[in-house]
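In this supplementary section we document a worked example of the pipeline. Step one takes a protein sequence of length 153 as its only input; no multiple sequence alignment statistics are reported here. Step two produces a three-dimensional model, which step three serialises into structure tokens for compact storage. The input and output of this example are shown verbatim.
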Amino acid sequence: MKTIRLGLLCLLAAVPSVAFGLVPPPEAQVLETVNSTFNGELFVMDYSGTRYLLAQSKWGVVLQSTFNLQEKQTITLDYLQIMAILTGLHPGPSSVFNLGMGGGALPRFHLGQFAKSKIDSAEIDPAIIRLAQKYFFVADGRHRIIQGDGFEV
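The serialised model returned by step three reads:
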């Protein structure tokens, strides 16, 4: 866990240079950069065994999602670990609604824990959906992704 946090700190220290067009650390690999109407410029990056989804917007650099490339169902961000505890309070949820998918850490974790559960994830940003499907292993027959405002779908 210390390695992940240290890697994240190193990565976040490098993000402003990536976001402003400078060179990322040599060991970081930028997989794709896209512009998003909702989130500004999005970056998918691998660094020190972890994949990151970052957004550079008018609010600054935002860490959208991460996952360990060797243990894809492991939740690496503290706030998501707390949210996952709530998932674990129910002995066997049959269906879950996920408001805002990002890189899909919670759905990936949940589907790994509950073999009979189904998830609907609402994500307003089509660029996030495309990147999550391409780089964050969110495709699963039990996971339906709905593009739209989660309060309206």
